[in-house]
Design a protein that fits this description.
The protein is mainly beta. The chain has two domains: 11-176, UDP N-Acetylglucosamine Acyltransferase, domain 1; 194-319, UDP N-Acetylglucosamine Acyltransferase, domain 1. 11% of the residues lie in helices and 33% in strands. It has two helices and 37 strands. The chain has helices at residues 159-171, 321-346, and strands at residues 11-13, 21-22, 28-29, 34-41, 46-47, 52-62, 67-68, 73-75, 83-85, 90-91, 96-98, 101-102, 107-108, 113-114, 119-120, 125-126, 131-132, 137-138, 142-145, 150-154, 194-195, 200-207, 212-213, 218-228, 233-234, 239-241, 247-249, 254-255, 260-261, 264-266, 271-272, 277-278, 282-284, 289-290, 301-302, 306-309, 314-318. The protein is globular, with a radius of gyration of 19 Å. It starts with 10 loop residues before the first strand and ends in a 21-residue tail after the last helix.
């Protein structure tokens, strides 16, 4: 059990035999922060509660003086893009920095999603709730806002430092909150299910064979059940709240990072994009792709066979075989990720499979 007087270290696991590498032990670390796989993390990092830095299908390289707010996620695109982040970057709470390049002295505020292949130059502010669409370039010296994020004004002197300081102050309380240190109970699930050590499950949760519940996820079925179908993956820091009614998710579906789901149904072979927010009683048919950063309205139904997106979501284009193949690739990748992390997490203590069994500090990481 951690307390305000106990130093917390991140939960760490290797991926495919490669451990994270740290220039120094994180300066500050909240409970249930996770650093996984091919990560190189610079000196004087601060990691808020529930944060996830995960490098499996590619590498993550982060510079010095990095700040990651509560429940935020850094990840890669499998064998396509790494995540590269420079020095003195501050990221707010519930944000996702995904498979992109971020320069030095940048501020990425709460709820921002930065998507694959994007380049954020030095000295950029991305304002809260914005979505940076794939392969965008954000130019130095500007504030960006909206979905898609667009330059709205030039930065004024001292603004980045002030915004960064506010993000640091906002996360401070979580860094001194006692850890629960309670592993999820997986005894009733099929043997090939993966539930991350830092996920939290409450109530009647039914997981079918091959399901993966990744790091930092919160599934609350205390009031109504949650049922998730075969080979579906629920990615890092997603919250599923069944307090207003049951949640049913079909087989072969992907739920991206930092998604919020309430009472409703999601069909088979669907993809719910990163940072999406599904209102209560949303119905997502089979064979739907919902773009990252989208929202739905209460009781909205997303018809199958379409790419949906926007705030609120609307149909943009018919799904084709290329998009469907890409959706299936993610399902297959996450079956592999789940198997690898399950093996690492379940390995007996002393064999490199649990927190603290590899050196936390590597004074000469590859930068």
């Amino acid at each position: 059990m951690a307390s305000a007087l106990t130093h917390v270290t991140p939960f760490i696991l290797p991926f495919d035999g490669t451990w994270p590498r740290f220039a120094s032990e994180p300066l500050l670390c909240g409970t249930d922060a996770s650093v996984l796989g091919r990560v190189t993390l610079g000196a004087r990092a601060s990691l808020g509660a529930g944060t996830v830095i995960r490098a499996d299908g590619h590498f993550v390289r982060i510079g010095d003086d990095f700040h990651l707010g509560d429940m935020s996620t850094v990840h890669i695109a499998h064998e396509v893009y790494p995540a590269i982040i420079g020095d003195r970057v501050a990221v707010g709470c519930d944000a996702v920095v995904h498979a992109c390049t971020v320069g030095n002295d940048c501020v990425i505020e709460d709820g921002v999603v930065v998507l694959d292949g994007s380049v954020v130059e030095n000295g950029v502010l991305i304002e809260a709730g914005s979505t940076v669409f794939p392969r965008s370039t954000l130019n130095s010296g500007f504030a960006y806002s909206g979905s898609p994020a667009k330059a709205v004004r030039e930065l004024v002197p001292g603004e980045l430092e002030q915004r960064a300081r506010l993000l640091h102050e906002a996360v401070a309380p979580s860094l001194f909150t006692a850890a629960t240190d309670v592993a999820p109970d997986t005894r009733g699930f099929p043997a090939d299910v993966f539930v991350a050590r830092t996920a939290r499950l409450a109530g009647r949760v039914d997981l079918a064979a091959g399901v993966s519940i990744l790091f930092g996820c919160r599934l609350d079925a205390a009031q109504s059940p949650i049922a998730i179908g075969t080979n579906t993956n629920v990615q890092d820091n997603t919250r599923i709240d069944a307090s207003e009614g049951e949640v049913v998710i079909g087989p072969g579906t992907t739920i991206g990072h930092n998604v919020q789901i309430r009472a409703g149904r999601i069909g088979a072979h669907a993809l719910i994009g990163i940072g999406s927010d599904l209102a209560a009683d949303t119905v997502v048919d089979d064979d739907v792709l919902l773009a990252a950063g989208s929202t739905t309205t209460p009781q909205q139904q997303l018809e199958g066979g379409w790419l949906w997106g926007g705030r609120p979501a609307r149909p943009f284009a018919r799904l084709n075989d290329v998009r469907r193949a890409a959706m299936q690739d993610i399902v297959d990748q996450y079956r592999g990720y789940g198997a690898a992390y399950r093996a690492a997490q379940d390995r007996p203590a002393g064999q490199g499979g649990s927190n603290g069994t590899s050196p936390i500090a590597d004074r000469h990481p590859h930068r």
